[in-house]
Amino acid sequence: MATFFGEVVVAPSRAGLDEEEEAREETPEDREIRREIEKKREIDVLWSCAEQPLVCSRFIVAIGRNAAAFLSSFILDSVCWEVVGVVKLWNEWCRTSSTTNVLPTDSFCLFYRLISDPTVLLCQCSCYVAEDQQFQWLEKVFGSMEKKGLQVTILSTCPVADYKTQESTLTLVSPFLKALKTKEFQEQVCCPLLEQPNIVRDLPAA
Amino acid sequence: LLQPAVSVGNVGQLAIDLVISTLDMTKVGYFYTDCLVPMVGNNPYATAEENSMELSINAEVYSLPSKKLVVLQIRSPFIKNKYRPFCETLLSWVKSSKCARVVLLSSSHAYQRDDEQLLGTPLRYLLTPDLETEVGGRMKELNWKEMEKVAAYPGISNTDKVLHIPGGGITKLLFTESCSEGIQMAVLLKFCSEGDNIPDAFVLVNYLNEWLQLIKSEVNPSSQWKVPSSWRLLFGNGLPPALF
């Protein structure tokens, strides 16, 4: 693909192709570098309570700053909820630490438990979990739980501009709620379901 | 097994959408994999309110027993460094499930064609040696063009010729692995560029149909394919009235 100045530039593809790297055979140095990077990008889930695995019947996950702020404003308080875990991770966009004393502007991923019913867990994840870390997050978090009739609720936000609809998004009344549910979820959903061609991606999707 | 490669213009994936939608295939399973970017949505092939609520994720398997056809659809890009693990897992599943043959729909960057490839049909095929013996003759009858090999070092003559599929995603890897593992695989690909790739998908799926005869190809085969409801709004929302 030629540009104005005559140089040939590889056009970005919607298919997310990144072939040059994949095509090359890995040298031992490459392998070592890749392993080091993978180690750096590993996720650590640190639980502060002794009982492992955690018995969980309801798990509410708030992903992104808006959803995390919603929980901070309306649900969480130091009387009814206690911190039981934290996720430590690093990627190009953010780094979280193992401290549980966080400011709303920090990037963090904390787990809380309802003191009156310890099987109710809540997660506030305001940091960005990168593509290659999402699966790991999933396995490590859900792997530490003993699921007893587990019901999972995921709260997240997306920009209105990303919403695909016949009308223009300028005329839409926002904010508005949409939901996705598995067929096992039998209860009433409080808002309309998300219509095609809209999709959810990244950690909420995982 | 019919499946797409995540390749330029997503043509293979669009063509697979047409196959699943037209043949009204039933979902029979999915891949739980860390190799693809996660995504989820409601049923992309919904035709009515009742069937619109089934969740759909990034790698799902559909089947049509009457044609002994299993289709894998991939809906998101690969995560970095995960091409090889995915291909290995896929091929081991192909072998363990005793799948007779694999057909891979793919595409390649149109701008990388050489002078000869610029003329004539933009469609190409590839067959692994094990499949060549069985259907090579049919390809000749259909007058199909095999994907040309290119010089490993362009500009220098007397170099080895290698297979090069720019923009093809996992196509080359899957194909070369299948060759060495004795799997019967056919690759059908189209040269194209990014843009509105719906016409490319129709061309590719009609090409596939010439061979596999999935639907009756009458006078205008393109009209026989059913476009899924999820293809709406591919290029943005409606315009704000205030614009005018």
Automatic annotation (TrEMBL), chain A:
Chaperone listed as a keyword: yes
GO annotation terms (biological process): proteasome core complex assembly
Keywords: Chaperone
Top-rank taxon: Eukaryota
Record-linked InterPro entries: Proteasome_assmbl_chp_1
Family stated for the protein in its record: Belongs to the PSMG1 family.
Descriptive protein name: Proteasome assembly chaperone 1
Organism: Irena cyanogastra (Philippine fairy-bluebird)
Automatic annotation (TrEMBL), chain B:
GO cellular-component term (any): cytosol
A Gene Ontology biological process term: proteasome assembly
Location(s) in or outside the cell: Nucleus
Keywords: Chaperone, Nucleus, Phosphoprotein
Assembly, per entry: Forms a heterodimer with PSMG1. The PSMG1-PSMG2 heterodimer interacts directly with the PSMA5 and PSMA7 proteasome alpha subunits.
Recorded family membership: Belongs to the PSMG2 family.
Functional note: Chaperone protein which promotes assembly of the 20S proteasome as part of a heterodimer with PSMG1. The PSMG1-PSMG2 heterodimer binds to the PSMA5 and PSMA7 proteasome subunits, promotes assembly of the proteasome alpha subunits into the heteroheptameric alpha ring and prevents alpha ring dimerization.
Name of protein: Proteasome assembly chaperone 2
Organism name: Irena cyanogastra
Gene that encodes it: Psmg2
